[in-house]
Design goal:
The chain is an all-alpha fold. The protein contains two helices and no strands.
Amino acid sequence: MNEVNKEKVKEEVKEEEKVEKKEVKNYFLGILISLLTGLFLGFIIAIFFAPKPGKEIRKDIKDKTEEFVEKSKKGATEAIDKTKEFVKKSKEKVDTLKEVIIPKKEKEENKENTEA
């Protein structure tokens, strides 16, 4: 009974830890979105209250928007490349593990068949 109770307690603790990690991720995402929204609004307000003529402000907005789009594209491309590299490395590791595990499993099965 004690072992069963200990197992249940361990499972409950693991589930609670998972829930806590999800909550932390949710808080982080909310904070990040709030920060980016604040930065964006601050940027827009600063541009409109800057002592520049309308044409210059519109040009600045256009230039900054284009710059932001380019940086976003570059960041997305880098993220995609890193993800592809990670997947490639993971596949290589899985293949390596298969090469090690399958022969061991076959040996064990052969031992069991010869013993029977």
